[in-house]
Structures are given as structure tokens and as C-alpha cells.
Amino acid sequence: MTQKTVKIVLSGRPVLIACQREDDSIEVTLDVTSYGEPGVWGILIADLVEHVASAYEQNGWNREQVLSAVRTIVLKEMAHPTDKIISKEAN
Predict the structure, then answer these.
(1) 19 falls in which pLDDT band (50, 70, 90)?
(2) Would you place residue 86 in the very low, low, confident or very high pLDDT band (cuts 50, 70, 90)?
(3) How much is the pLDDT for 88?
(4) Got the DSSP string for 4-70?
(5) Could you give the C-alpha distances from 28 to 6, 54, 59, in angstroms and in order?
(6) Residue ranges of the domains in the chain?
(7) CA–CA separation, 23 vs 65, rounded Å?
(8) What pairs with residue 13 in β-bridges?
(9) What pLDDT is attached to residue 90?
(10) Residue 5: pLDDT over 80
């Protein structure tokens, strides 16, 4: 089974894990206890977008165009989600 995984680690433990499944769906695991204030996740998401732009830039893409494309899709997806979020409690 091929699976792509992204991990963001804070203080030595994962706070966000995103795995692409074989059916192209995304499985996300969050540790919301890492941050007291929910708004702080905005900083983490913004930092993640900057890392994405940097990675694409290293592969020949224009950084500003990448940031613009990601921003456009994030706002569109938040306004009209293409997938339903299914929440599961951690064991």
C-alpha cells in the first residue's frame, strides 16, 4: 500500500499528520492539545503554506504564484468544501 505522509512536529511530537490514501482521500490526525488557543493553528497553517512555496520554488516554480494559487484554493475550499469531514475520536 502506497501512502504519502506529511508530519509537522512541535517540541518533538507530531501535532499534524496528513496521509494520502490509495483512493486519494486524505486522513488527518491533529493533536489539538498542543495549542491552547485555536487561532494559533492559523500560524501553523500559514507556516505550512510557506514551506510548500519554498519546496516548489526549489523545483523551479515562482514562489509568489505558488502562494497565490494555494491561497485561492484554500479560501475557495473553506467557502465550499469538496469533501465532507468525518471526525473520529482518538483512541
Answers:
(1) very high
(2) confident
(3) 76
(4) EEEEEEETTEEEEEEEE-TTS-EEEEE-GGG-SSGGGHHHHHHHHHHHHHHHHHHTT--HHHHHHHH
(5) 9, 22, 26
(6) 1-34, 36-83
(7) 29
(8) 10
(9) 59
(10) no
